[in-house]
Amino acid sequence: MASTIEKKEHSQVVISLEAGIEEWKAALKQAYNKNKGRFQVPGFRKGKVPFQLVCQYYGEGVLYDDAMNEIANKQYPEAVKEHELKVVSRPEMDVTALDENGLKYTISVYVKPEFELGQYEGVEVPYKDIEVTDEDVAEELDRMAKRNSSLEEVSDRPAAEGDTVTIDYEGFKDGVAFEGGKGEGYNLKLGSHSFIPGFEDQVAGHSEGEEFTIEVKFPEDYHSEDLKGADATFNVKIHAIKTEVIPELDDEFAKDVSEFDTLDELKADIRKNKEEKAAKDNKAAFENETVRAVCDNCEIDIPQSMIDSEVEQMAQDQNARMSSQGIELSMYLQYLGQSIEEFKKSLEPMARVRVKSSLVIEKITEKLNPEVSDADYEEELKTIADSYKIDIEKVKESIGDDASFIKDSIRARKTVEYLASKAKKVEPKEPVAEEEKKPAKKAAAKKTAKADDAAEEKPAKKTASKKAADDGEAKETKAKKAPAKKAAKAEEAPAEGEEKPKKTRAKKAKADEE
Questions:
Q1: How far apart are CA 24 and CA 33, in angstroms?
Q2: pLDDT tens-place string over residues 39-75
Q3: Among 141, 130, 146, 195, CA closest to 167
Q4: φ and ψ of 205, to 5 deg
Q5: Do the Cβ atoms of 182 and 170 come closer than 8 Å?
Q6: Could you state, in order of their start, the residue ranges of all structural domains in the chain?
Q7: How far apart are the C-alpha atoms of 82 and 4, rounded to whole Å?
Q8: pLDDT at residue 432 in the model
Q9: Backbone φ, ψ for residue 448 (5° rounding)
Q10: What fold is seen in the domain 3-116+498-513?
Q11: I want to staple 472 with a disulfide (CB 3.0 to 4.6 A). Which of 186, 448, 500, 509 is the partner?
Q12: Please, what CATH class does the domain formed by 150-245 belong to?
């Protein structure tokens, strides 16, 4: 098989391939054998129509799609391997010739972009540690006290903001009760703003056993069309008033809510836990800022297909997170008045950052080639098992024999840790006040476009061979079968894989069918 490649703008590569007439004829026979069960010709049983008669009765073009797939499914992966292409898009096939000499065609793909690294060791990183203060400890104690508060009934005063009142209520519009406006024995916390504006304010000041009427106006954006902006009255009766009693912060409180005997011991434990979390957060923040600084030092013309793939992955991840909480992303977007296309568009800036980070870290990792020991690997598996709360043996079973993506993840993390160890911490710049930002003279706009802006232009779509692409995607998705993929950082490079060309129909085939 002879194949050549032509490199074009924005990391696009066009592969030129061909098959001789004998190979083409053999592919037609294979296509016939695959589909002969669906051909029907008078005088022949279904599936028994000879090859030549199928070509005469239906036209040879009816077999072209599958014949092209047979050839492309074999030649395309070999060409990718031969030219060491790192494909990042669906391949698109275009037939250039189909005649007595055989088949000639091209396959267009986008590959990982080539780029030069800038400075990556010793970069300056604006950074400030998160420190744990006495106020942080006090706030946590206050939260613990509120979580352990209780409601106690009061009858010697009117209801006030912060109280929980048990009420009956019924709403009327123009003197007629409306649907959904009635409740009995309802517990309402005054000041929670869970009812329409004005309702809770007018309940406050009334006492237990009191019956009264309040007047309200429904908001213009209220969900019920009949009640939008409408004036209404509510008859209300208070059955009980309860106030929140927060426990006193003393040794007895510490004994009740923790394993400690004194409040000082509880405070010390809170500080210790917060300091451990702050240390982890500080480390992660510094590593993220280091990667950002390193990425800022190089320019990459990123193919739009990589941005699109990352956006799709981010949207799927968001949908999965929301589904686990019983919320559908589509319904949530509908509530916000946002389409799925608008939502995905909003993800593009972050997707671009993530893709660029992955490419940069991958290239630096290739240069550094950090070693992954057996201990590193076992520790990673344990981390995965702990995060999913499953036995480590089940993780190993899920991963199978191909552990390369786990080791790639470890290498990438080691690279980020190395870069952070070489980076220089500098004080963040103070934000400039708005009045100081005014320029002395407005500069003329330049007409040059950044490389990333150019990369946003989407290539024109050609007809493509779906089956071959689906077969090729199997390699990319192999790594995804293990739960371990979730543990990988956003900055790490995605697993590489090959995709095969999508389904097409030659122009000659179309003419024959017509």
A1: 14
A2: 988 888 888 899 999 998 899 899 999 999 999 999 9
A3: 195
A4: 100, -10
A5: yes
A6: 3-116+498-513, 124-146+254-296, 150-245
A7: 10
A8: 60
A9: -80, 145
A10: Alpha-Beta Plaits (3.30.70)
A11: 500
A12: alpha beta
